[in-house]
Amino acid sequence: MTATEPPSPDRPHPPAPPAQGPAHPPAPAPQGAGHRSAPGRPARADARRNRERLLAAARAVFAAAEDGTVPLEGVARAAGVGIGTLYRHFPTREALVEAVYGAELDEVTASADTLLAELAPPAALRAWMDRYAAFVAAKRGVMGTLRAGWAAGTIATPATRERLTAAIASLLAAGAEAGSLRADVEPDDILSMLLGVFFGAPAENTPERTGRLLDLIVAALRP
């Protein structure tokens, strides 16, 4: 059969040549190449845990300080981390104080709704006053740093009074609706009374005396 002669139907076609593979097979993917993000997840979780431990330790250390001289090494030691870890999360003393203040302000303002879900309005108001008293007491050791930071602009000035007044307003409104608290009281007046209790005579205040004064305020708010 010539090159131009068509193949005979009775003659079998010659077998096709085997397919040629690539001259060089692809190199196998390096082991673990598809899991590059896995090592990052534990690292991020560790960083979050360290930050939470530092904030918890700073709260306790700052609350126990009387004169405001709290070395950051003491905070790191109480948290069980090195001073380098502290500075990675909070590069300055002001940054740590601001973080502690902001976290506790969030908690004390949010606790009003939580307490109202569990207690009658007068009891919720009294329990919230205790929570606010603890918030104030925890700031005595760092109040100088806070005030200096607010004045210099190195610490953001939060709307503290407005947020506290709003929390008190929600407690009073619930009591007025239930008929268990007066409806003719301004929330900001209550906050001013609380500030007088906490800062009026701090040298003479004891937890027992503070508790009695807070009881008197709640009693005055009953209809």
Automatic annotation (TrEMBL):
<dbReference type="InterPro" id="IPR049445">
    <property type="entry name" value="TetR_SbtR-like_C"/>
</dbReference>
<keyword id="KW-0805">Transcription regulation</keyword>
<keyword id="KW-0238">DNA-binding</keyword>
<feature type="compositionally biased region" description="Pro residues">
    <location>
        <begin position="14"/>
        <end position="29"/>
    </location>
</feature>
<keyword id="KW-0804">Transcription</keyword>
<dbReference type="InterPro" id="IPR001647">
    <property type="entry name" value="HTH_TetR"/>
</dbReference>
<dbReference type="InterPro" id="IPR050109">
    <property type="entry name" value="HTH-type_TetR-like_transc_reg"/>
</dbReference>
<feature type="domain" description="HTH tetR-type">
    <location>
        <begin position="48"/>
        <end position="108"/>
    </location>
</feature>
<feature type="compositionally biased region" description="Low complexity">
    <location>
        <begin position="30"/>
        <end position="42"/>
    </location>
</feature>
<dbReference type="Pfam" id="PF00440">
    <property type="entry name" value="TetR_N"/>
</dbReference>
<dbReference type="InterPro" id="IPR009057">
    <property type="entry name" value="Homeodomain-like_sf"/>
</dbReference>
<feature type="region of interest" description="Disordered">
    <location>
        <begin position="1"/>
        <end position="48"/>
    </location>
</feature>
<dbReference type="InterPro" id="IPR036271">
    <property type="entry name" value="Tet_transcr_reg_TetR-rel_C_sf"/>
</dbReference>
<feature type="DNA-binding region" description="H-T-H motif">
    <location>
        <begin position="71"/>
        <end position="90"/>
    </location>
</feature>
<dbReference type="Pfam" id="PF21597">
    <property type="entry name" value="TetR_C_43"/>
</dbReference>
<protein>
    <submittedName>
        <fullName>TetR/AcrR family transcriptional regulator</fullName>
    </submittedName>
</protein>
